Amino acid sequence: MHAMQYEFVLPADYDMGIIRSRVARVGHLLDDWNGLGIKTYLLRERGVHGSPVNQYGPFYLWNTVAGMNEFLWGGAFQGPVDDFGRPRIRQWTGLAFEEGTAAGSPASLAVRRRQPVPEGVKLAAFMAEAAAETGRLAAEDGAVLAASAVDTHAWELVHFSLWEHDAAMAEGDVFQVLHLSQPGRAGLPRGRQW
To answer: How far apart are CA 68 and CA 24, in angstroms?
Structure first.
């Protein structure tokens, strides 16, 4: 499993209805994308759920690098680049994935928490704890799914979770889920990835 996210920070007075309309128009295009586990079309609005910014920030869990590369280099990614500019793309190697207690429910919110991997920690123990945290998040009431992954270049850990409602949510940046494409969700490996 590979995680990926890019973000477009938009002006404070930006009409976020433009993003909602865009996702309504094109969100279905990845509903059957080969190699994609899930793509969440995410939106943060300034002043909503504590967000300091307006932001469009899709988050992906890929089953295959080939599927990710086809998306990035095969032409599909050119649309957002043409409309918003070329963003920095964060990529993380998967640590764990779990279906949540509300796995069959639609997701309305997503929570993303990024944190540095501290110097001097025992990597095996730290990553095992991160994987265990994925299981704890998935076991919370209202959790649709939870994942964790690590960027070994920046030594950054990301916890990502989807929720049917905001009760018992995890800590982190809260996004509204506009659409969920999940053609390969059933194929995402469960539990620890090593």
So the answer is: 22
